[in-house]
Write a structure and sequence with these properties.
With 271 residues, the protein is an alpha/beta fold. Helix content is 42%, strand content 13%. It is built from eleven helices and eight strands. Strand 6, helix 9 and strand 7 form a beta-alpha-beta unit. The longest helix is centred in the middle third of the chain and has 17 residues.
Length: 271
Amino acid sequence: MSVHVQNTRMTTAKLRQMKANGEKIAMLTSYDFTLARLLDEAGIDLLLVGDSASNVVCGNATTLPVTVDEMIFLTKGVVRAAQHALVICDMPFGSYQVSEQEAVRNAMRILKESGCDAVKLEGGEEILPAIRHMIQAGVPVMGHLGLTPQSVNQFGGYGLRAKEEAEAEKLLHDAKLLDQAGCFSIVLEKIPAALAERVTKAVSCPVIGIGAGNKCDGQVLVLHDMLGLNQGFKPKFLRYFASLAEPIKTAVDTYIEAVKEGSFPNEEESY
């Protein structure tokens, strides 16, 4: 077991203290009990049940198809595994954009039914009223700015965001608004590192980067990506911390061969 493991649960207050102390925050996505337990035992600070489940779990091309029901189902398993990490559930596309009332209702349902600690939403000033209402209702909210995958059709792809001054200033403005509204943290995805550093210094809440340089308060990656399971997917910001695709396929090949030749199960493995 990792030496990083703590016996106390992570809280939003502790995250703010980590920022104040200059202690980096480690976050990964998770979608099931078994892997979440391993991540938690290793000492991960935050577990995000991302709408990236639409891609890596369900095989969809975008995050758009995943539903509230599916997110709740996946989050329940992660919550059961987490003894230390703070568990955050992505609110999927369509669950918070229609109206403030529907957004709050869905956020409260996710918290009640999944048992997670917080929700995450994509967007800035345009969804600020919904965020304010959620926080007033007692729902901890993590913001998400920059490349927001739920807007892929609007953006026309997954390219670098906020390269131009106007978009960069809007992102900084949005981050300040989210911070003032009470978001306990903000994710910045695929933006210039210099801008991410400006945002991190400008807000009081912790900033978690993905493709946003190393000056953020913490980092997040999709678990399947950093473990090297999504072969062929290697954006500039992604580092493989393991390459598990080939060992898994080798294990399965060996299993198939053992079954086909009749060597599994052997006498010791039989009752």
